């Protein structure tokens, strides 16, 4: 059981390293960083309590929102998905990404208190 | 000219002695002679006594709505009906309006006396009943054991009412009182010893006596909620010249002989208390302000430091002097007390304390409620309002939220860095293409 699990993981990792374009790997690294920040924040809130609840929500939403936007960017920029996003060029995808981020950070700054 | 001066002096004299006007009601004017030492001690202290027989048809306490007397002494135990405009209702109203009364009963007390004392919270035993003590009677007793010796141990522990510790015991011959133990305003000044009881001396005992042992009160006192004072003694002879000067010696077991009874000292202290010479307090100036300021602000804010000062004075020999005590408490109350501290006594009778207003806003009262045996009731309440913090008085950045601030900014920084890398990213193929 464990043998097959480790083989699956190593095979996945090798496939990923070989077949994924570097641009997507860049986005993946950025996603991993956002994930780490979100998890640390959540653990901190569990330890210390929810005292400035609005600040917690704001910080956590900023992580979650950034994660979602970056994932969308990765989807739209991935050349393998070109069939599904015919009308949206990678530049347009990036522009949407930036615009959505501006709105997200505006909200976060207002709510963080 | 001399006439005008004497008129002015008379006016001033009457003004100064307004609190010492006393009406003395007597059964018969012989009491004036048999109790001469007692009355002389009162006049020496400045009281102006007016002696009247109790059934005098011109008796009047108030004229044109003003009371003529501040104090009343009723030395007429066997009175059946008051003369003039006096009655049980008039006397009760007199106490309600702040007058002080000293009442003395005896073995033959009339029902009117019973009614008056009942209004004040005590019960006088039935007519003919005397306090009998077969173990603590004096050598001079006539055989019925009604002339009893009351020890100092049976005196209430209240120096304000009974004065300093006495050395001689007291002589008593009269009826017993029963005080309601549930009544918080009633004080048992002198009780009989545990071997005493109250019954008719000549009858066989067929029923349980009304008062037995320490429940038999010889002298009782009451301070009403308006600070009027009433003292009831079961014995008129307690105040007589004969008892004042008589030696005291218990007949049984070769009791120690005391050359003079303690009656005179006790009656001195009692009259000083009941006629409001001793144990009278009043509140002077009350002030409160923020710590560091001088004037009272319009309102306070939560979590501020507040200083409270109250001036309490005591009456001593007709003059108001600063009072000193270590147990006056201040309560900061909004329905329930939030802060309760002891006030520190400072110089010249100003009690002060400093405390922190709690974290709860609302309308509070600064209450000082000082109730001690023998002293007048002291009540002072001052209202203050406490506001919550203004919007600008909160801390701008909360320390425990710093991780959240950090993450939000790091997300912004991350987007910025990521977009630079993403836009300028070139793979090896692209660089090769460009260079071609």
Automatic annotation (TrEMBL), chain A:
Top-level taxonomy: Eukaryota, Metazoa, Ecdysozoa, Arthropoda, Crustacea
GO BP terms in the entry: protein N-linked glycosylation
Family recorded in the similarity comment: Belongs to the DAD/OST2 family.
Protein name as catalogued: Dolichyl-diphosphooligosaccharide--protein glycosyltransferase subunit DAD1
GO cellular component: oligosaccharyltransferase complex
Quaternary structure, from the entry: Component of the oligosaccharyltransferase (OST) complex.
InterPro entries: DAD/Ost2 (IPR003038)
Cellular localisation: Endoplasmic reticulum membrane
Transmembrane segments: 30-50, 56-73, 93-112
Species annotation: Daphnia galeata
């Amino acid at each position: 059981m464990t043998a097959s699990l480790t083989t699956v993981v190593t095979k996945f990792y090798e496939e990923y390293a070989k077949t994924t374009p570097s641009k997507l790997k860049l986005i993946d690294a950025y996603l991993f960083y956002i994930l780490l920040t979100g998890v640390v924040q959540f653990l901190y809130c569990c330890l210390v309590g929810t005292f400035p609840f609005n600040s917690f929500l704001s910080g956590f939403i900023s992580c979650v929102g950034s994660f979602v936007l970056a994932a969308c960017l990765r989807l739209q920029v991935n050349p393998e998905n070109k069939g599904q996003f015919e009308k949206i060029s990678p530049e347009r995808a990036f522009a949407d990404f930036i615009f959505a981020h501006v709105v997200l950070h505006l909200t976060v700054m207002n709510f963080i208190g | 000219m001399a006439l005008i001066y004497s008129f002015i002096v008379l006016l001033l004299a009457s003004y100064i002695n307004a609190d010492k006007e006393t009406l003395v009601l007597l059964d018969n004017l012989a009491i004036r002679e048999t109790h001469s030492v007692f009355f002389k001690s009162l006049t020496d202290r400045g009281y102006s006594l007016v002696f009247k027989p109790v059934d005098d048809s011109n008796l009047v306490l108030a004229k044109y709505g003003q009371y003529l007397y501040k104090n009343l002494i009723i030395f007429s135990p066997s009175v059946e009906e008051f003369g003039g405009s006096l009655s049980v209702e008039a006397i009760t109203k007199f106490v309600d309006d702040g007058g002080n009364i000293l009442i003395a009963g005896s073995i033959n007390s009339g029902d009117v006396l019973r009614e008056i004392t009942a209004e004040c919270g005590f019960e006088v035993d039935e007519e003919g009943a005397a306090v009998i003590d077969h173990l603590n009677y004096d050598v001079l007793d006539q055989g019925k054991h009604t002339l009893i010796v009351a020890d100092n141990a049976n005196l209430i522990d209240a120096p304000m009412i009974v004065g300093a510790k006495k050395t001689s015991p007291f002589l008593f011959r009269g009826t017993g009182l029963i005080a309601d133990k549930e009544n918080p305003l009633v004080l048992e000044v002198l009780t009989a010893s545990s071997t005493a009881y109250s019954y008719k001396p000549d009858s066989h005992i067929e029923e349980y006596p009304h008062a037995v042992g320490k429940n038999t009160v010889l002298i009782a006192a009451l301070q009403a909620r308006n600070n009027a004072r009433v003292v009831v003694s079961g014995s008129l002879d307690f105040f007589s010249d004969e008892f004042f000067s008589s030696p005291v010696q218990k007949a049984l077991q070769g009791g120690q002989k005391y050359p003079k009874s303690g009656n005179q000292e006790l009656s001195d202290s009692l009259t000083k208390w009941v006629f409001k010479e001793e144990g009278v307090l009043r509140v002077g100036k009350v002030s409160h302000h923020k710590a560091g300021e001088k004037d009272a602000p319009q309102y306070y804010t939560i979590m501020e430091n507040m200083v409270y000062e109250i001036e309490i004075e005591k009456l001593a020999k007709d003059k108001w002097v600063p009072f000193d005590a270590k147990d006056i408490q201040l309560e900061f109350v909004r329905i329930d007390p939030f802060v309760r501290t002891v006030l520190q006594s400072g110089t010249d009778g100003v009690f002060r304390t400093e405390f922190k207003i709690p974290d709860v806003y609302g309308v509070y009262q600064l209450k000082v409620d000082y109730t001690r045996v023998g002293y007048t009731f002291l009540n002072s309440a001052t209202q203050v309002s406490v506001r919550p913090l203004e919007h600008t008085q909160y801390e701008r950045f909360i320390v425990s939220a710093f991780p959240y601030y950090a993450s939000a900014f790091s997300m912004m920084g991350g987007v910025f860095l990521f977009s630079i890398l993403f836009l300028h990213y070139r793979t090896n193929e692209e660089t090769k293409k460009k260079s071609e």
